[in-house]
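hey m, so remember when u said the tokens were messed up on ur end? i reran from scratch. heres the input so u can diff it against urs
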Amino acid sequence: MKKIFISDCEGPISKNDNAFELTSHHVQDGERLFTALSLYDDALAEVVKRRGHRAGATLKLVLPFLKACNVTDQMMREFSKKNLVTVADAKESLTTVQKIAESFIVSTSFEQYIQVLCQTLDFPFENAYCTRVNLDAYELTETERARLLKLKEEITHMPLINIKDNAESDRDLSEKDRETIHRLDMIFQKELANTESEEILREVKPVGGTEKAESVKDIVSKLGSKLEDAMYVGDSITDVEAFKLVKKGGGLAVSFNGNRYAIENSEIAIMSESSLTTAVLAEEFCRSGKTETLRLVENLNHETLNRNIADDSLRRLPKVKIITEQNMKALGVESTEFRKKVRGEAIGRLG
């Protein structure tokens, strides 16, 4: 039976944060709006640890504001196609991996973006798990539209929540940050109640956090396989639960240009401008299993990479490290900075 290769999309395969870019383009002060909602999402998931909240909720929180700005499903597809930027060698890497492993994409991204990406990379869309959304199915009254635009103005003028690396509960947040969270709670839980926006928030289920882990379980179950046969590649807070699941089951968890959330929950850290580095590890995992893949990383050097890849596509020597308690903090800082360089400062700093 083939091994299973499962990858997040944005980060390991593409450089985009499609929802962030979409919001920045179509909503006035959209970059600030998305960043504020993303930090709120991260705070609820990792600091407040609110019951029932799942990392990745930013993608549904932003939808009412996109709808208020008259964004349609077709506009989402057209924007995605025009602005898609893949990681170097992504198509070649996925083609290679599909020959040796049952391959899947598990992404928080909107389905309109994933459809475009799959078409571009010749990857089967039926092997992709993503956030399903049909904005055209909702109709806002002019009163609700005006209210959303007013709330958007309020949110973009709020102070951004500051999440410290060692924050473990809301007591570790400043009073100002707790006030911001309380106000956003009021907006999404009270002020949008009994509106079309509430319908959007209730019906759209972002594939993030536990949903990514459930997607991994679904893949393994459908294939009649085991978690120990799975390699999972991710880069952010939405991959944490999938990382934990795969590691616990004996599979391999790999951070690709990940932020600290990814580094703290995976076993191997890749910092590379090319996805061929991931393909090298996937080939070894499929051929020899997890133990030998970890051994490869311990002995990895430029010559080893060149022998495995058999071409000169890597323009810069990647860094590939086994993550330990001793190097985790330093790798988290280094990988986060590399992530910003590869994907841009605004996208790179998102959770």
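this time it looks ok to me. Confidence is low (pLDDT under 50) at residues 309-315. if urs says something different then somethings off w ur setup not the seq
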